[in-house]
Amino acid sequence: MTAGTEEILSFEEALEKYDPVLGFEVHVELNTRTKMFSSAPNAFGDVPNTNVTPVDLGLPGVLPVVNRVAVESAIKIGLALGCKIAEKCYFARKNYFYPDTPKNFQTSQYEDPIAYDGSIDIELADGTVFTVAIERAHMEEDAGKLTHMGGSTGRIQGAEFSLVDYNRAGVPLIEIVTKPIEGVGSRAPELAKAYVAAIREIVKNLGVSDARMERGNVRCDANVSLRPYGQEKFGTRTETKNVNSLRAVEHAVRYEIQRHAAVLDSGTPITQETRHWHEDTRSTTSGRPKSDADDYRYFPEPDLVPVVTDEAWIGRLRSELPEPPAERRKRLQADWGYSDAEFRDVVNAGVMSSVEDTIAAGVSAAVARKWWMGEISRRAKIADVEPAELGVTPELIVELNFLIESGKINDKLSRDVLDGVLAGEGTPTEVVEKRGLAVVSDDGPLLEAIDGALAAQPEVAEKIRGGKVQAVGAIVGGVMKATRGQADAGRVRELILQRLGVEGQL
Amino acid sequence: MTDLIRLSADALSLRLRAGEVSAVEVTQAHLDRIAAVDGSINAFLHVNTEQALSVAAGVDRARADGEALHPLAGVPIAVKDLIVTKGQPTTAGSRILEGWQSPYDATVIEKLRAARMPILGKTNLDEFAMGSSTEHSAYGPTRNPWDLDRIPGGSGGGSAAAVAAFEAPLALGTDTGGSIRQPGAVTGTVGVKPTYGGVSRYGAIAMASSLDQIGPVSRTVLDSALLHEVIGGHDPRDSTSLTDPVGALVEAARLGQVEGMRIGVIRELSGEGYQAGVLTRFSESLELLRSAGAEIVEVSCPNFRYALGAYYLIMPSEASSNLAKYDGVRFGLRVVPEGTPTIERVMGATREAGFGDEVKRRIILGTYALSAGYYDAYYGSAQKVRTLIQRDFASAFGKADVLVSPTSPTTAFRLGEKLDDPLAMYLNDVATIPANLAGIPGLTLPGGLADEDGLPVGIQLLAPARQDARLYRVGAVLESLLESTWGGPLLAQAPALDGGK
């Protein structure tokens, strides 16, 4: 089936007719030093098949050993999601043949996950709160990465051969599964995005994952089903796999609701299957049929002993938990002195942590907000990425701000400096020099320009002399024009007033 | 040189330490014996001549330099080809691993190397340790040194035959349902399955992870204890490995003691289905133990009747999953079928060509037993039986310090005799399987020759988990009592082998 050829209903019409039910499986890659069951490094981006031991390759005779730090991370995630922690839980083998899985089974958990029965409050942009019930969070290992070669699409169809990199095989994963989420109506896409954002925030805040979606540290499978309003029984669901950005989660849920509605309207039943999300067409295509009876022949992993927890251990981990995000938000708003609207904008723009880091690096709350909500958000929008993904560091903002406050550059020039830094031309100071962007701070040329501007607008000069200081803007504008923006506007204003003898009225 | 190959590991150790003989001489004697007789026995899949001699030479130099050496340094050993070794092939008796070399050593191999024991080579076995006769090896059957037309037991027939044929004083085996003990019984040798977790499984190619255990194979009880102490102990790479110290096994074997001990005869493991000659020798052993001051009591383990059934669900279930990794993708055999070679077709063709019938049979059985809808009835029920068997043992060990039974219901059968009757083959392990299901240790030692066929009979001793020392304590006494009735070791009565190469 080609992407985007299916009939869909408008979102509004779909919601008018049908009640959507959502469910999410989010996989979080932990940032432990070593893998889930071996001593191989857990690292991203290395030369393929270098971060492997005989265990990761599934060589004959090998045995797994559980990474204690990964278990602690799992418990922390469970606690942060308000889950109960199992006193004793087992690993299980999920058997299926696929070349990215070296043993042809995945070591996972089945009947008894380490964490279960939790819930998390999700706040939408307008402040509406939905409570999402968490069914379980369990430990498992990641698979290797397949690269299909020789085809035009990079997909397995049409490929001549495939390469496999086992560096990722055995990386610790926590799979967080929600209970069905009902009653969200038209807020479903927003909730989907907000839920995944919240999970990402929690695991990042816990320090247990790098939480970078673009690297696959957080991956979402989104389940969607529709039912007529008033019907209790769930409709048939589809599972859109590996949706790997917040926007994509929102769009995929929206699309599936529209597609389901069209299928149901045509009187056809929904096929229970997995779906693939395509960012280019913003649509899904059919994957493989998925029935509840998929037979993975689960059985308890005989090579591992059960994980046994106790109150002392859990208590210690609980005491190590960082401040929960909701409380943190409350505290930060108070610390920064933002209004409710200002703070919500910062949160909704996804730049709260960036603002926090930037303030910590040495600028005022107002300056941090100005940068993240202004110039950086503007650029993120153009590039269609999250602001934090642009590569602007808190240190960079501090340096730009220092250059502005010391009068070396002005706001307008700072954008050019940022361009230069992001283009790899060096530090802000280096860019200022290389591009010749420094504001004209020698009063000589400035005075010349001021005299020119005053002469060009004698009537304005007269008004200022007469006490209408606010008219100074017109002269400043003239000076800025004459200096092609390279003057420090504050200094210009100062000099104009000095020149006209109205210093005292600054 | 003939003398050297007939010496026990303990005797070799003494002579090596006294400087009466060099490690190179000892190793060369065994390599010569292998060259002379293994053409007719086929115990070895690979002979490790150069490496073994080089290790031996190193031991001799070290001894000359006055270095402190392990007591078994320079005593050669054979290794079942289910245990991975660097620098030598490891096949698991299967075509699917033909030509594969492990890039790492099993933990037990590291320990042998640390003790500086020359490794003579890798011994034959039923493919992936699945069988009771070594006939399921992809590399041809091993023959019983007592009668070359008969099986040496299995799966560890190669290790048992090598030791029985004086090709090695010691060997390593693995025991999932009796693969050390049953070959020991039918070749007139000693073999021990330690307590589950007593010896690291890291590097033992898994058949059924919850049942597999590496253990010693030897000609005397003391020799097994010496080897057991080398290979035993905690290994952080094996999560199921016990943290207990190995225990004073050699001391237990040297001292020996049965006086005042209660020895329990398991009612369900004798009588019907057991060969008459086996039962006669078994009764004699009981009499000897009684005469030495042991109290013989009868115990009942009513759930043992379900043991074989439970075993043949749990073992294939785990095996079906453990053997999934042999798919031609990463190592070993790869068969690319004609036509479009999709991954499914390559995996299928590789497994079709690489696995033998018995392996396929167990993979299919296990896959079925784990399937949704059947899991509870099969795997689930089998696990419950396992608990019942553990309870039977717990109750029996309340009445007795050690349990005793024949190791195998019959003496060695003829090659090919049971090849077409898997159930008859499986019944060979009826007395050995309960110990694996319960995780307890077991030892077999020769109990004499059956009157009707003149072939060795094995006596099995069982002890509670972590009480492996009791096996050696009682085994050493029974061995000594039996040998005094025979006027020497049982293997002295084995026919001479005239080679064949």
Task: Describe the secondary-structure layout.
The complex is a heterodimer of chains A (506) and B (501).
Chain A: H1 11-17, E1 18-29, H2 68-80, E2 84-85, E3 88-89, E4 92-95, E5 105-108, E6 115-123, E7 129-141, E8 145-149, E9 161-165, E10 172-178, H3 188-206, E11 218-228, E12 238-243, H4 246-265, E13 273-278, E14 283-289, E15 299-300, E16 307-308, H5 311-319, H6 325-336, H7 340-348, H8 352-361, H9 365-383, H10 394-405, H11 411-422, H12 428-435, H13 443-456, H14 458-465, H15 472-482, H16 489-499
Parallel strand pairs in A: 12-13
Antiparallel strand pairs in A: 1-10, 1-11, 2-6, 3-16, 4-5, 4-15, 6-7, 7-10, 8-9, 11-12, 13-14
Helix pairs in contact in A: 1-4, 3-4, 8-9, 8-10, 10-11, 11-12, 13-15, 15-16
Chain B: H1 2-6, H2 9-18, H3 23-41, E1 44-47, H4 49-64, E2 77-80, H5 107-114, E3 119-123, H6 157-164, E4 170-174, H7 181-187, E5 190-193, E6 214-218, H8 221-231, H9 249-255, E7 262-266, H10 276-291, E8 295-299, H11 307-322, H12 343-354, H13 357-370, H14 376-399, E9 402-406, H15 422-427, H16 433-438, E10 442-449, E11 456-462, H17 468-486
Parallel strand pairs in B: 2-3, 2-4, 7-8, 7-9
Antiparallel strand pairs in B: 1-3, 4-6, 5-6, 5-10, 9-11, 10-11
Helix pairs in contact in B: 3-4, 8-9, 9-17, 11-13, 11-14
